[in-house]
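Late entry, written up from scratch paper. The run itself happened at the end of the previous shift, but nothing got recorded in the book at the time, so transcribing now.
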Amino acid sequence: MNDPEAVEDLIADLPEWATTEEIADVMRVKAQTVLKWNREYGLKSVSIGSRVRRYRKKDIRDFLLKSDEAAD
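Output as recorded:
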C-alpha cells in the first residue's frame, strides 16, 4: 500500500471531479496512461458522452493507495 499522506499531498489540488488531462498533469504521465489505468487496472470513471470522462477524487485516491499492489 502506498503512503496515504503522500497520496493526499499528490492529489490535494485536484478538483472533486477531475478530467483525464488533470490527472495526467498531476501524475506527470500522458492522458493515454490514465485511460489505460481506467481500462485495464480498474480506475473508476464516469462517462459523459463518448469522449468525456470524469474521475472522482475518492476513486483516484483509492486507486493510488492500492496501485503498488497491482501485478503488471
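Strands lie at 17-18, 46-47, 53-56.
(Scratch paper discarded after transcription.)
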